[in-house]
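Risk register update: the risk of archive-format incompatibility is retired. Evidence:
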Amino acid sequence: MKIKQDHFDYMKSEIERVLNRYPNLVSEYEQGLFPNADKVHNLQTRFNHDLAFGAGLTRFICDTLYPYLEDSHIKTALNKICPTLERKF
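Archived output:
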């Protein structure tokens, strides 16, 4: 991974904070209990991006990560941080 360790750790801690605040979030996504679930093609990607947004990481990603990373690197980091989902709907 090309992301700096401190940046990865920051993203992880902010996402874990959201997951701790909403303990049913994983099962809700797996069951399609979120807005526009019927339009989702890649559940894991949607979940990862929603978590990053919910954790308030949008500005951090734009201002801190994009100057030295591209989308594929950020996607890899999010895949390592976020729980893996099993689509049930």
